[in-house]
Amino acid sequence: MQYVDFEQGQGPEGLTIGQTERPAIKAGYVRVRVAAFGVNRADTLQRQGHYPPPPGESDILGLEVAGEVIEVGEKVTAWQPGDRVFGLVAGGGYAEEVVVLATHIMRCPASLSFEQCAGLAEVYLTAFQCLDLIGGVEHGQRALIHAGASGVGLAALQLCRYFGVEAATTASTAEKLKYCEKMGASVCINYKEKDFKDVLQTVWPDGVEFVLDMVGGDYLNKNLSVLRRDGIIVYLAMLAGRYADKLDMAKMLAKRARIQATTLRNRSDDYKAALIQRFSERCLSAFDTGELVVNMDTVFAVQDISEAHRRLENNDSVGKFVGKW
Question: Roughly what angle, to the nearest 10 degrees, separates helices 219-226 and 196-203?
Fold first, then answer.
């Protein structure tokens, strides 16, 4: 089969189309002919040599796919050849075929294309994990979503609206903020022009119950400043660097705050299966009703996937990049 190969440590120009053996199928797994795959920041980090796959997983790039089931392994009863599916893989998504646990895929909503489904799983499951499983946000609460125009940010804003949670967000341009507002943000802050702490302390002096942060750096104490007592800050990434500013322990104690980091790729198979089941039960039908949408930026032919990496590294996106075979 064909797959997207890469030279570790090289730039996007190191991505090429190669040939490799089809992955072997085993009990509990299904083989999917990949029609489209999501492009994520984790892929660029792996290409750079900073984010290796978990032990035993494929070293081919790609964490989410959509396509058609073409073979089922032993003990698989929920799926059959011909089913349109999408879901998570721990690696191997940038290939014509992938073998994935039967409990890690979902049925494609009838109204969505393979390309849309390929851009759904990683961002929505990540956002859902943070808001629901970790944050436990509830109807009537307030949340601050940083990097609102990112794939996860846009998914989180929509989920907030879907759950009845009022959301504020930060982004770098008026265009991005306008789109964030369309996706559910009621307070939109251009972080290049205003300090989000000052804005929120004026607009929402009582603070927020939940903060989702992919930035880090000097945002830590500011997040604490706008957090309500017993609130939680969830960290997903460190776009501003691996070291944060000096933690104000007095502020943290006064707020009885929780600060938690999370990842998804290296979670256990059982954790991912439970997350996918809960998301499917709570949210999947909302894509057919239009209450939730997949935020697409660009669909790239697989031969042009280097351009997707280049643009992602330049933060030149509003929504998801997807590769298509």
Answer: 0
